[in-house]
Amino acid sequence: MKVRGLHSYSLLGGEVVVSLFAFFCLAASSEGAEIRIAWDPNTEEDLAGYRVYYGTASKTYGQPITIGKETTYAITGLIPGQRYCIAVTAFDTAGNESDFSNEVCGVAPDSLLGRWEVEISGHDMGGAVLWFEEHTMNLGGYGLSATMELFGLKGKYTLKPDGQAEGTLIPYDLRKGEDLPSGVLSIKGMVKLEGGRINLRVYSPGGQSVFLKIRGWASLQGVVAPEGWMATLRGLTKGRVKSLHIEPFELNGRVYDKLFRITGEGIWESGGPFLIEGLFFLSSRNKTFGVWEGMGLKSIRGTLRGKLDPSTGTLKFRIKGEQGYTYVLTGQALTP
Asked: How far lies 107's CA from each of 118, 273, 299, 323, in Å?
């Protein structure tokens, strides 16, 4: 006896199957977030029911929830934005319990309108994740850009039935929690739930000029990048990267979906060593934008743009430094 095909309809990120319809139909509640799961039914004649296990770490669960023979369940009262891992077992009329099903992990939804993956252009350039909380009318998010670097977003919004949106937006330093000098910005544009498209203009204080343009789409699934790479670096000279690692960005115990840290070390053809370090945003369309620091690269500090395709295990980043130096990093994942 074993439970087969467990999947989640409302987790954000992680190795899960997500249903867009079910996610947008989640009900806001002061009692917390909700995750809905489903699995393939067992066919044993002596099947008595199922037990749902969940916790905040992989394969580390609390007391199970015992249910009947139904093959869907909604776990309620969860912490919005918290990552959960879930598994299910089956038990028979004699009390025998099966092994755990496959495990699904992801982040409990913290907004009714879902998360939106956006590109930033205008006076700045970068990528971000946004969410709109329908029950509080709060706007939140985080991202990475050339001038704001690693930032968070907070604000308020209104949304009309035709999709017209207005509101205020305050960027802040994600590491320090301090508001950035840009102050309170105003936003106007369209948020189309049907079709999952967003197009906003962000205006400077007083609404006198367009400060940023935000365009994107509803994006519920997380993005996974291979960890180990072999790579080369080309610029004024050529270098071989001996070790290149990409890992999810984590801050204060929280993993930020679509943000990744890249580190490595290598040797120039001339024999000199170099170290590399950067942080980038990876969209579900494989586009990247990031900030870069290089030690031994003529102290390059600047921006990173390009593509990383997890399905083929390839990357190509163009690194542009503040002093005009340009390098191209190309790589192949060791395990696509």
From this structure: 19, 40, 38, 40
95-115 pLDDT, tens digit each? 999 989 888 887 776 555 667
Torsion angle of C-alpha atoms 125, 274, 226, 81, degrees rounded to 10: -50
**Which architecture, in CATH terms, is 228-333?**
Beta Barrel (2.40)
Q: Strand, coil or helix: what is 24?
A: helix
Q: Which fold has domain 115-218?
A: Lipocalin (2.40.128)
Measured distance CA(286)–CA(62) in Å, rounded: 37
Element (H, E) at 21: helix 20-24
CA distance 54 to 73: 12
Global pTM? 0.68
Query: Is domain 4-107 in CATH 3.90.930.12, yes or no?
Result: no
Every domain of the chain and the residues it spans: 4-107, 115-218, 228-333
pLDDT for 310-333, tens place per residue?
A: 999 999 999 988 777 788 999 999
144, 146, 149, 278, 306 from 323: Cα distances, Å? 21, 15, 18, 17, 20
